[in-house]
Amino acid sequence: MEAIQEHKGLVFPLNRTNIDTDQIIPKQFLKRIERTGFGQFLFYHWRFDDDGQKRTDFELNQSKYNGASVLLAGENFGCGSSREHAPWALLDYGFQVVIAPSFADIFYNNALKNGIIPIIMDETQLNQWMKQAENSEFILDIDLEKQRIIAESGTEVSFDIPAYHKEKLLNGWDEIALTLQHEDKITAYEK
Amino acid sequence: MDLNKPKTIVDKIWKKHLVHQEEGKPDLLYIDLHLVHEVTSPQAFEGLRLNDRKVRRPDLTYATMDHNVPTKNRDVIKDQIAQTQMETLRKNCEENGIKLADMHHPDQGIVHVIGPQLGLTQPGKTIVCGDSHTSTHGAFGALAFGIGTSEVEHVLATQSIWQERPKTMNVQVEGDLGPGVTAKDLILAIIAKFGVRFGTGYVLEYTGAAVRKLSMEGRMTVCNMSIEAGARAGLISPDETTVDFLRGKEYVPDGKAFDEVAEEWLELATDDGALYDETVTINAAEIEPQVSWGTNPGMCVPVSGATPNLNNVEHREDVERALDYMGLKENQPITSIEIDHVFIGSCTNSRLSDLQKAASIVKGKQVKTGVRAIVVPGSFSIKLQAEKEGLDTVFKQAGFEWREAGCSMCLAMNDDIVPPGGRCASTSNRNFEGRQGNGSRTHLVSPEMAAAAAIEGHFVDVRNYSELVS
Ligand code: SF4
């Protein structure tokens, strides 16, 4: 996993609650045996109609969101299936940060394993950003090290993230290698 | 820690599996059973190969093929990418010495159906699988949860996992379920009442008289859908019902050794007076057969009810979008909703007793013209047993299709797809947009309710069917 300390990018607001991983990446794209190339299928049935044409009513298809890399979403983001294809698709599409009032447990973990920063944010603040991002080009600067989000206007908001998750993201550590440092204990347990 | 302090089953299992603990970090837990299927494992095995790592405990790992497998003709697989994925699993299992129940194996079936059926699932075990419905195994008093592919790789390599100690919630079900009201209705009612997020960060323990009276099949149905409440896991303390179910299963000891281990299992049950972080209560007697109307499992009402009134809902836009997707209006009575597909199957409701109950409803009747109804047993062995009992004939004579075991129309990764705009009464666990096929509309129900809907062509209160009332 790539280390990530800071990310500054264009915001895409997706004001829906309970966005499940079936929507993030539909099942017909889960048959691949690679980790890469899932971005083209992100939110597939929201982005494309039955003939594979872009849907004009889905906001992500608007040119003003081209290159968006910070996703804002409603509560319980990533609920449902445990498919890690969901963060793979988000990352491959270009999303590096997801900000929501709450996340489903498995998605939250899966995101962290892939170097996506999942940020839990108070709904009032989030709604304010949603509006700004709907109305104009809106950029947020996420400083993981300092746990701060800075808007272009200069306003700053802090966020919480468990220290051990933060450390892993900052360093891009291989978790298996870390665990194997405790291999003697695993072996002892097995006896 | 006070040794005499009453403990929950989660406390006891956690303590037994601790490998490493450090202040300010999650705990490292040992994993007793790792179940593997074709869809969420290829990238994990590839990761091992790239880093020159081995599967630490192939003997604690067990694989099957379920998500992709065809349920009609298994000799020709039309879908080349699916074929590659299954082939990849076979190679990975061979290379690493992992037991595999492949498509033609007598133990093949949905991963959460075969674990219990083989007795691999046992009280007190820590069980993981790259699949969110791993919570099913909690029915036995195991701590079982779904993980992502990176974690699958981690468990393959280390047989352990980093876990934050979850909070515990007592989901207390008081009173008795009425006739014709099933375990499926119970869990749907719980999620409808408390919402699709109430379990986030918790392990749910289902307790109370109604839960004790459930069969193991019913308990599996309940625990299966814990994830739809957002929970990390769901479980039920083991009792005699648990022990009776496991006696004689392939992977449990027999004779005296079984009695000894059974005693240990029973001791795992939550102690009287143990404290939970949270308790919620629901009265079983008030629960009616349930039907979901929307696009998440919390969007669910009693069969006597109707779709919501838009003036009294939270998140109105989401409700409007759900109704629109489902092709429904507000205040629409559930019994007026006509269906064109029926799916009896999935890890929630594809066990023998589910099929028996559905068969008792359709026996001697005919599926409504224009309705396509299929039954997909949860495992090959369930299929065989059902055929021995003549259930296949009952279904076929009523106009149902009778299939091979697999996930099938629960997620429609194979050919079993509900077409765009199609409406399905389904015994599965998720009614998300497009879950059963692009543009498909899913209504979650019990096997009995699905069977009755197949006959009538619309939802009916199954309690009015005389077979059940008598
Ligand atoms: S039956 Fe459905 S929910 Fe269960 S494991 Fe298969 S796809 Fe997942």
Automatic annotation (TrEMBL), chain A:
Gene designation per UniProt: leuD
The UniProt record lists the keyword Lyase: yes
Role according to the record: Catalyzes the isomerization between 2-isopropylmalate and 3-isopropylmalate, via the formation of 2-isopropylmaleate.
Record protein name field: 3-isopropylmalate dehydratase small subunit
Organism lineage: Bacteria, Bacillati, Bacillota, Bacilli, Bacillales
Biological processes, Gene Ontology terms: L-leucine biosynthetic process
InterPro entries for the chain: 3-IsopropMal_deHydase_ssu (IPR004431), Aconitase/3IPM_dehydase_swvl (IPR015928), AconitaseA/IPMdHydase_ssu_swvl (IPR000573), IPMI_Swivel (IPR033940), LeuD (IPR050075)
Catalytic reaction list: (2R,3S)-3-isopropylmalate = (2S)-2-isopropylmalate
Keywords: Amino-acid biosynthesis, Branched-chain amino acid biosynthesis, Leucine biosynthesis, Lyase
CC annotations in GO: 3-isopropylmalate dehydratase complex
UniProt pathway: Amino-acid biosynthesis; L-leucine biosynthesis; L-leucine from 3-methyl-2-oxobutanoate: step 2/4
Tree of life domain: Bacteria
